[in-house]
Amino acid sequence: MAKKQKKQPQSGGTPATVALTAAGVDFTVHSYDHDPAHPSYGEEAAEAMGVSPDRVFKTLVADVDGALTVAVVPVSGSLDLKALAAAVGGKRAAMADPALAERTTGYVRGGISPLGQRKRLRTVLDDSAEAHATICVSAGRRGLEVELAPGVLVQLTEAVLAPVGRG
Question: Structure pTM?
């Protein structure tokens, strides 16, 4: 069962929740007991929180023409690599090496957040996010999600909105 709390205090938070708190924006933290045997981090989060998978977004790191790029897409679908490359003016995109993604963002796979990354990467948010008042993204560790308005995510990450998800 997911536990909910408003604005987590800065001390003891993840880099993502610390960044949100510092920005002074509205957000809600959802925590749940992560099951390492679950086949999908994102679907597990949606199930645990009782939220539609269309509103829970996964953070994926791709290599676009040699530059690491973050794609934030609904867990109910997949990433369109050609659309991601086009969204940032690139030619080719491929999924990044997981170890490189972890080192660069400072987060572990399944807990990579688009917020509070060690090195800020250019970010593309799937435009389906605009259909929701709030969406959920990883708060920086497995079993922890943050719910916020899509516009807040765009503002804080300087994201581009583009159709990069596939249903």
Answer: 0.91
